[in-house]
Design brief:
Chain A: Pfam families: Ferritin_2 (PF13668). The complex is a heterodimer of chains A (277) and B (236). With 277 residues, chain A is mainly α. Chain A is 58% helix and 1% strand. Chain A has helices at residues 3-13, 17-21, 24-37, 43-48, 52-55, 64-87, 94-119, 145-170, 174-201, 250-257, 264-272; strands at 237-238, 241-242. The chains are: A mainly alpha (277), B mainly alpha (236).
Chain lengths: 277, 236
């Protein structure tokens, strides 16, 4: 890789790059510093951070960095949740430990990945402190496995909706969009599995109606506290087309076939329930 | 509201056209003669067919037709599973495969209706390599299709334009891809419990697999009999 050529290209795309980085020498140093410590896959992001484009507002007014910070907050939440769950003696039975460990590891990887990317975009925020009882709404979350799984399901399904809600804000930034979508589908895999785990146990509202996919706006969780995470999932009309009427698949299948997004304004109040003030 | 009708057919700058036909046929793994009598017979609309095969169209239409092609493949696959279930299928498996069939039909028919006159024809599939009576054969194929679908949407989203209409389609693709990921996780767990997000599909950064359209067709090609001309598809 010829660094001089890369900088020449950067200068062409972003003539003011050195206004932010002082000089080509500083840029070179910055690049070396960044690339020395990050995973290979994150290099395009770190490089991108040196471009004006990455600092710019998206058409909706939310910057790429804002989206990534928002995503990091949610990943901090999930990661801390599974770390604490696994560290709590007697909470997770042997049968569930493998899957929860897999999910915890992915959430930790997402945290590391987003921190690394944000380090090239002006810095990653620190993790908030969490209260996973949500101020007493889920008092037994770390002593009752059924509650632990129910909250996990809610986090994963909410995470899927949160990433989906940011896709349009990342439109035009191919690298970040693709990475965000690649996290998004991993969260959906997690959600699917946790829903299957809960269905197999059959407690706390998990009946045979609980499936790996979301039917209407049903949470399959016996508390209304989680309802905001499922509101709107009952949609059966997409782009003006009545999906339920297609080959008469019906409303349940139509709602399951399309997962719905949540906006930042919808997700942040949900996340805040678990964040210590 | 059929938002596709408002799409410009002009090429988006990010769409890099012209995978050379020879290369594309190579990717499809079918250099030899296809596209003769069968494709002609399957062709309902003259403008869909040119000598090089079924054109996916240009710009956002090409990306959406790409998705439509995959949904056609999946819908046909699950329709056959439900019509003739593998031996030993459990009631829950049959119920969930019926759900998945319905989801894929919903996706397929959504694209068909949304794309309207820009939609490609109904594709003829080739499932001769699948033993529908065998659980192992069906599940392995289902896993391959679902993981492929996830990677295909993840990889193609970046080529959808940044216009308001393009963003609407990006969101719709996002609504579909997470459902494909839910399917993938379920089927993987059927094959090997706990493999819902195995490290064969999720990398060390916790990111799911991403495939270019050419990589997707290289895998899907053997199941699609109708010749497709993907020259207008983006590639990287």
């Amino acid at each position: 890789m010829d660094l001089q050529n890369i900088f020449h290209e950067i200068e062409k795309v972003d003539p003011e790059v050195y206004d932010r980085l002082d000089s080509r020498r500083a840029a070179m140093k910055e690049f070396t510093r960044i690339s020395g410590k990050i995973a290979l896959a994150a290099i395009p992001f770190a490089l991108g951070g040196m471009f004006k484009k990455a600092y710019s507002q998206t058409t909706s007014g939310t910057s790429v960095a804002d989206v990534l910070k928002y995503a990091l907050t949610l990943e901090y939440l999930e990661s801390a949740y599974y770390i604490k769950g696994i560290a709590t003696p007697g909470l997770i039975p042997t049968a569930g430990l493998g899957a929860i460990t897999t999910i915890r590891d992915h959430e930790k990887e997402h945290v590391n990945f987003l921190q690394t990317v944000l380090s090239g975009l002006g810095g990653a925020p620190a993790s908030p402190e969490f209260d996973f009882t949500a101020g007493g709404t889920f008092p037994t979350v770390f002593s009752d496995y059924n509650y632990f799984l129910a909250v996990a399901q809610t986090f994963e399904d909410t995470g899927v909706r949160a990433y989906k809600g940011q896709a349009a804000n990342l439109s035009g930034n191919a690298t970040v969009l693709t990475a965000a979508l690649s996290i998004h589908s991993v969260e959906a895999r997690h959600a699917s599995h946790i829903r299957s785990m809960r269905r197999a146990i059959g407690q706390l509202g998990a009946t045979a109606a609980l499936k790996p996919w979301i039917t209407l706006n049903q949470s399959g969780i016996a508390t209304t506290a989680v309802n905001p995470s499922y509101a709107g999932e009952e949609l059966i009309v997409q782009a003006g087309i009545d999906i339920a009427a297609l080959d008469n698949i019906g409303a349940n299948s139509a709602s399951e076939a399309f997962d719905e997004p949540l906006s930042m304004d919808q997700v942040l109040p949900i996340a805040k329930l678990f964040i210590k003030p | 509201m059929h938002i596709l009708k408002h799409l410009s057919s002009e090429k988006d700058e990010k769409v890099m056209p012209n995978l050379q036909r020879r290369n594309f046929l190579k990717y499809m793994g079918m250099g030899a003669a296809l596209a003769t009598a069968t494709s002609l017979a399957a062709c309902h609309k003259d403008h869909d067919y040119v000598d090089n095969g079924v054109s996916l169209g240009s710009g956002d239409f090409a990306v959406l037709n790409f998705a439509y092609a995959l949904e056609q493949l999946e819908a046909a696959f699950y329709t056959q599973i439900v019509a003739s279930p593998y031996s030993g299928i459990t009631p829950t498996e049959l119920e969930f495969f019926t759900d998945i069939r319905n989801h894929e039909i919903g996706h397929r028919d959504f694209f068909k209706k949304a794309l309207s006159t820009n939609a490609i024809i109904g594709l003829e599939v080739d499932f001769s390599s699948i033993d529908f009576s065998s659980r192992a054969s069906v599940l392995a194929t289902a896993k391959a299709f679902e993981d492929l679908g996830v990677s295909a949407y993840n990889g193609a989203a970046q080529y959808i334009s940044s216009t308001d209409t393009g963003k609407a389609y990006l969101l719709l693709a996002g609504k579909i891809v997470s459902v494909e990921a839910r399917h993938a996780a379920y089927i993987r767990d059927l094959i090997e419990p706990g493999s819902f997000a195995g490290n064969d599909v999720v990398d060390a950064n916790g990111l799911d697999t991403v495939r270019t359209p050419a990589q997707v067709f290289a895998i899907a090609g053997k199941y699609i009999k109708t010749k497709i001309n993907a020259n207008t598809l983006p590639h990287a």
